[in-house]
Amino acid sequence: MQAHYFIGIAIPEPVARKLAEKRTQWKMRSHKKYTKPEDMHITLLFIGDDPHGEIGDAAKALEEIRHAPFNLTLDGVKTFGNPATPRIVYASVADSRELAELQSDIREKMLQFDMNPDQKRFVPHVTLAGKWAGGDPIDVRMELEPLSFQVTEFSLFRIDPIGERKYIPVSTYQLREG
């Protein structure tokens, strides 16, 4: 099986721990998968596999991205799919011009490679639960008080579906004025 990659922002450990604690308080039993705190992230661009061996060059190209650090706020809980039986439950990200610009610059930088990155509309989020397990619809009120943190870096991640940690940073890039 070929390795798959994405570019994302790791959620700082204290914030990820709070998200996991809140999810535990909701007593969710509706999904097959619950994201571990150390794997919580915001995907900026899903790349997928590397059919032409370009991941090293892509990692080097990401060094050219220049953005100042910025703040983000997780501002609620939403779902993908039917709200009563959602495929995904996630922490939503408040609108951020800086995040949108960073994502756009990364997408533009990756267009020079033949890796076929995801072209779907960017919906920044932190997945909390995935893969509906069946059974009764969700009847839990999932609320989240705003959680803010500073984004100082982003990473190129390799996906390890069978590892203890599912998302392994390959390269990490510090945000700085450019």
From TrEMBL:
Q: What stretch of residues is annotated with the motif HXTX 1? A: 41-44
Among its keywords, does the record have Heme?
A: no
Q: Which reaction does it catalyse?
A: a 3'-end 2',3'-cyclophospho-ribonucleotide-RNA + H2O = a 3'-end 2'-phospho-ribonucleotide-RNA + H(+)
A Pfam family that this protein carries is 2_5_RNA_ligase2
Q: Where is this motif: HXTX 2?
A: 125-128
User: Does the keyword Translocase feature in the UniProt annotation?
Assistant: no
Q: Where is the active site?
A: 41 (proton donor), 125 (proton acceptor)
Q: Which NCBIfam families match?
A: 2_5_ligase (TIGR02258)
Q: Which family does it belong to?
A: Belongs to the 2H phosphoesterase superfamily. ThpR family.
What is the annotated role of this protein in its UniProt record? Hydrolyzes RNA 2',3'-cyclic phosphodiester to an RNA 2'-phosphomonoester.
Q: Supply the name of the protein.
A: RNA 2',3'-cyclic phosphodiesterase
| Organism of this sequence | Planococcus chinensis
Q: Tell me the gene name.
A: thpR
